[in-house]
Design brief:
globular, 337 residues, disordered N terminus, 7-stranded mixed sheet, D-Maltodextrin-Binding Protein, domain 2, disordered C terminus, two-stranded antiparallel sheet, 2 domains, alpha/beta, Arc Repressor Mutant, subunit A
């Protein structure tokens, strides 16, 4: 016999369930409050209300964060299913007529977003004037399953079996220096020379670490003088271009107008570029159009630096097919007479 709504008693509201999910994923009340844009007391009050409604403690507090009780783990499973259903409703709404208009959210690493996709968005917007593109450049990957973005472009391969995953190409990196740096310090001719130079490093979850880069390079020093640490790609490029030190940049930097000099004999490194989105997204016209455009924007046949094989920057001009590329750094670098 079915239970009536009155017999079931009061039901938890979705916002409270969402607070519980964010708290569990964040690991602490402080981190959850920051992500939700609420005060810590508001998060605590929501969790207290949920525990009172359930009739059991859902978590315990520790110095290093929160831990779920057995009841909390049971509620977490049910809350996750509730979240999946809510996202399913939102995706269903996107399948309505005229869905070729509206907003598409693209999450991308800050470097690829700032220096590759953003300058190229003009052509896509002209072809799709009814679309609004929300380009989210960040150093951390977005969670497509939780609708943080409609599609994500990242340098770490997603692992969820519920996502559509497409390899867009490969990004090749090598050391570069600015012209001013070469004039003042010269360029290293071999890995062991790096101990006499200044190094700029970028620190984030989707960048190449020095220990990864130098692992297989004979003669690479155990320690090198790091002059500057930067967490975003735009400031990282600017520091290298202005002569702060030597750093890793993608090989296409030279081809699109970056004022930097590639340095040979210091090795190179490659990372695959991944596109990921929910399988239902392809059924939404505006998202499908954006996916097609993104895939074309990284086409290795048109843009040879995204091929699996490494091509030296000096050989890229001869490898480019079709119309010459515009100077994508125009306006970002200083004006020349």
């Amino acid at each position: 016999m079915e239970q009536t709504e009155a017999a079931l008693g009061p039901m938890p509201d979705w916002q409270t369930i969402r607070v519980f999910l964010v708290l569990e994923r964040s690991g602490s009340f402080r981190a959850a409050a920051a992500k939700l844009g609420l005060s810590i007391n508001s998060v605590r009050r929501r969790i207290g209300d949920l525990e009172a409604l359930i009739g059991a403690p859902l978590l315990t507090r520790h110095v290093d964060g929160i831990r779920l009780t057995a009841e909390g783990r049971t509620i977490l499973e049910a809350a996750s299913r509730m979240e999946d259903a809510a996202f399913g409703l939102m995706r269903a709404g996107d399948l309505a007529p005229f869905s070729e208009a509206g907003e598409v959210r693209i999450a991308v690493t800050e470097g690829l977003g700032a220096f590759w996709l953003a300058p190229r968005l003009v052509e896509f917007q002209r072809a799709n004037p009814r679309l609004t593109v929300d380009l989210r450049c960040a150093m951390e990957s977005a969670d497509v399953l939780r609708l943080e973005a409609d599609l994500a472009i990242q340098l770490t391969r997603p692992t969820s079996p519920d996502l559509r995953i497409v390899k867009l190409g490969r990004i090749h990196l090598m050391p570069y220096a600015g012209q001013d740096y070469e004039e003042i310090y010269g360029l290293p001719g071999a890995p062991e020379d790096l101990v006499r130079h200044r190094i700029v490093v970028q620190a984030s979850s989707q960048t190449v670490r020095l220990e990864d880069y130098n692992r297989d390079i004979p003669g690479f020093p155990d320690t090198i003088p790091i002059a500057l640490k930067i967490n975003v790609s735009s400031a990282y490029y600017w520091a290298i271009a202005k002569g702060a030190g030597i750093g890793l940049l993608p090989t296409y930097a030279s081809a699109i107008g970056a004022r930097v000099i590639p340095i040979d004999n210091l090795g190179r490194y490659s990372l695959d570029i991944w596109l990921t989105y929910h399988p239902d997204a392809e059924r939404i016209e505006r998202v499908r159009r954006t996916i097609d455009w993104v895939r074309a924007a990284f086409d290795p046949k048109r843009y040879p630096w995204f091929q699996d094989a490494f091509i030296h920057p000096r050989d890229l001009p001869a490898a480019i097919k079709g119309a010459p590329l515009p100077d994508l750094f125009a306006g970002f670098t200083a004006m020349t007479p």
